[in-house]
Amino acid sequence: MAHICNEHTEKPRIVFIDCETEGLNPYQKYCHGLGIAFEEDDYAYYKMEDIPDYVKELLKDPDVTVCGHNLNFDRLFLHCNGIDIVGPMADTKLMAQLIDDNESAGLKFLSNKYLGAWSLKSYNIITRWLQTNKFKDWQFVEAPFEMISNYCKEDVQNTLKLYYIFKEKLSEIQEKVNEAGFEEGPIDYYFNEMQPCEEVMFEMKRRGIKVNMNHAAEVKQTVNDSINSLLAKLNELTKDYTAKIIDAKYQQELSKRVTPAGKAKVQRPEFNWNSVQEVGQLFFDEFKAPIYNRTPKGKPSLRSQDMVLYMESDNELLVQVATLYDQYKKNTKLVTTYLENLPKYLESDGKVHADFLHKTVTGRLSSANPNMQNLPKNETIKQLYVPEEGNVFIYADYSQIELRVAAHLSEDKVLINHFISGEDIHQYTANLLDIDRKKAKNINFGIIYGVGPKRICDLLGWELAHDKKPWESPNWDRATKLREGLLAEFSGIKNYLDKVQTFMENHAAIVSMFGRVRRLPDIWSDDKRKIKHAIRQGRNFVVQSAAASITKRAMIELERQGFQIVNQIHDAIIIEVPRENCHVAQKTMEDIMCNVVQLSVPITVESFPLNSFNEEDIV
In this structure, what are the phi and psi dihedrals at residue 209, rounded to the nearest 5 degrees? Predict the structure, then answer.
């Protein structure tokens, strides 16, 4: 194998890298070494301590593009080892997602698909060695140096080859998209949004979010005390009913024992409030509670939404038990999902450094380790995430961004006039249908995605007959007429959805207003269910992807202007600023978010300075 031994006489325009690491966490695991490639036959692998100065300078050169597969992962390990990439960046994983978002974007899958099985020769050798020596399949750094070196060099060679293949493929797709009448295609989307946003997400991960762990310990104790109190109340209220269930469990265990000595060891069990089976027996066998919903497996549902219905029962005992059980489940989840897991994500700087990722087909960001986009509504948990001393958070949320995008794309006159005049579009629909505003809001968002009668019945709480097919129910006809009436009122939406569907049927794909392509091969399927699902996906995509793009482009501009973004939750962005500058920063943030993209309707933002992630904790 060839190696990089000397400095090149000419500075390369692009280099390809891959790090081999002990694990996934750059703050806790070490980086074994760096693989780098200039050209197909010009590559090497270095232990971290042996990286030549020439290579370090190339990585720091503002004129040299650095390409990797999932580059942010490698960047962060390099950053923790004192090497920061400052020049242009490219990521073959992102490029693969834009070529076909229905396929895996993993390097091994892509290498095998585009380069053939031989491209994974060193990978297969090292994985066999790991299996033989009883290591996990990700513990590559435990292998002999030559194996690690060959494996990493193989990865950078594959990344290099894929980069040039993907460049050509994206150019071909871009040409087809432009020929179809779209101004922007995947190359525009990549350079204007996707790659710049990766750099923002890298900074978000690097800076982290501070956690008040002293308060977390207090909250955990309080919640555990509440759980014990709820259990005591539940057991007292239901003891006459749970006795039968407990006795059945006891007799079942006794029957498994043959000898008297074995039977003597069996202890009478307690009622298990964490067992869905036992709680189901209590509600449906003992209380004779009605079954409102079922799980995907067909079993009676005991979710929070079902408890809310039981709280409206005429049976006072059922109301009390449902209320206590619902709170018990919520408190238990707070402890097991959030409070117990929080310390394992905490780094030595007292912060969590969550991952923010491009993983969704619409382009919306996701979060993991921990998921900062899925914090509970419980304010005590959100209050644990705090700014540095002397700072505050500014929380800014786009208002009705998906409806505004739908108005712009569809050129619907009713929507456009309401947004330009500032009138309440949800109240307009509420008055039109003689329903409350909350239901009207759900209906408005449903209509822009082309929802059908069943979903409308769900949104409005109209029951469909259980003893016949849904479309034979009177409420089905009622919902159909309501849908037709609304689409006649918002005729621009209907025409646009029809146009989107026609394009999808002709191309098995759809393109967002910013150039992201969503492939929908199932629309050419013989299976009607798959066709309907593909149509729904396409209708959702054109609006959701554009809304996600607006939020991400705002993030890019905020970072360019020096703001420190710490979290992003769907249509909301959170930055951290010095307390004394918060009001000026808040106004600037709003201006950036409202003007980063120009639509045919105004874009509006609601923002608040906060002392924590709790939206009620306003400065």
Answer: -130, 130
Residues contacting 153, CB < 8 A, separation 6+: 1, 35, 37, 43, 44, 45, 122
Mean pLDDT for the stretch of residues 150-164:
97
Hey, what long-range contacts does 489-492 have (CB within 8 A, 24 or more apart)? 489/414, 489/432, 490/410, 490/412, 490/414, 490/415, 490/447, 491/412, 492/407, 492/410, 492/411, 492/412, 492/413, 492/414, 492/415
> Greater confidence, 465 or 3?
465
Residue 38's φ and ψ, nearest 5 degrees, are: -100, -50
- The answer, as to whether pTM is greater than 0.70, is yes
Scan for tokens 């996934």, then name that residue.
Answer: 24
Burial of 76 (0-12, 13-18, 19+ CB in 10 A): buried
Phi, psi of 495 (to 5 degrees): -65, -40
Give every strand in the sheet of 605-610, ordered side by side.
564-569, 572-578, 391-398, 605-610
CA distance 468 to 193: 49
pLDDT of residue 9: 57
Chain-centre distance of CA 101, in angstroms?
A: 15
> Which among 568, 582, 615, 557 has a CA at the least distance from the CA of 204?
568
Tell whether the model's pLDDT for residue 5 goes beyond 70.
Answer: no
pLDDT on residue 2:
40
- Among 187, 43, 83, smallest CA distance to 515 is for 187
- CA atoms in the 13 A half-sphere facing the CB of 110: 27
Taking the C-alpha atoms of residue 519 and residue 463, their distance in angstroms, rounded to an integer, is 35
